[in-house]
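User: I'm putting together notes for a lab meeting next week and I want to include a structural view of one of the chains we've been expressing. I don't have a solved structure, so I'd like a prediction I can at least talk through. The sequence is below, exactly as it appears in our construct file.
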Amino acid sequence: MNFGLLKRLCETPGVAGHEDALRAVVREELGSLVDEVRTDPLGNVIAIKRGAEQRSVMLAAHMDEIGFIVKWVDGKGFLRLHPLGGFDPNALFAQRVIVHGVAGALPGVLMPSVKPIHLRQGDPKPLSLDDYFVDLGLPSETVAASVEIGDMVTLERATVRTGDCVTSKALDDRLGLFVMIEAVRAARNPRAAILAVATVQEEVGLRGAQTAAEGLHPDIGVALDVTLALDLPGETMADQHSVTRLGAGTAIKLTDGASISDHRLVSHFRRIARRENIPHQLEILPRGGTDAGAIQRSGAGVPSITLSIPTRYVHTVDETAHLDDIQASVDLLARFLEEAHELDLSYP
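Assistant: Thanks for the context. Below is the predicted structure for the 348-residue chain, given as structure tokens.
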């Protein structure tokens, strides 16, 4: 596994609407694998590998990570934030951030406006995002000269190996990007055209996938994203509620809050996985969605599916995925691309 590439993808900053640095990385990686790379007006990276057949497959993995922009700088130099993506406020307590200001990257501490435990009586109130501020440790005059409203703020955490897993702040959805790039690299003589799209603004409404699919008119859509792995201690995490399990293979999604996977594509992915002995599991996600929800509703409709990488602690700074599940996702997608031209997706 190209861990260096995964680490680079995860640690390159980019929240919704601010994917510029990551866009450069993706263009560089895909450039040598395809026939054409371009960026559309919304900022999606579109990499096209032409095929001998008329069939086209759109792959979609989003570039944006959950993060913030600065919405206010107070008179003491503390920053208030506007979220771009869904956060659990409890997961943000005492984290470190990077403020990408006009004067460069500034490290800061993310803290809520609550009494320290030494002075507290009784249970603390539930936290909300509005309670949080960023302390840059600088005089207010320096902050005012270095930070502007709208500057990007990302969580600070390195990408590391944890046992048989990888842990990072942004596996959602840098893992999807990694799987897309490596599957395009690994696919042997695909005959269908591959439209590999690194999408923007997924975390705020599947926006990039919508516009990209409208422009590309694919025959098949495959979204690549993480999903919940809730194989954890606790009564609420019983097997029937785990969604997926780490180490049990790539996840073939049946449905989520944004889409119902095309049952013919589900069946085909399962046949390939069984034939090639690729570890896999089926996924039903009660809430949330992926770029497949936008692709399948584009134009006159596109048969679509999501291939998911099981991930623990999603939307925290310690998202964790099993290396074998990542590789299984690459292998299954690559094998699918090699025979996507053979699928009969017509209705009588």
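A couple of points you could mention at the meeting. The two ends are 43 Å apart (CA to CA). The chain is about 25% helix and 30% strand.

User: Perfect, that's what I needed.
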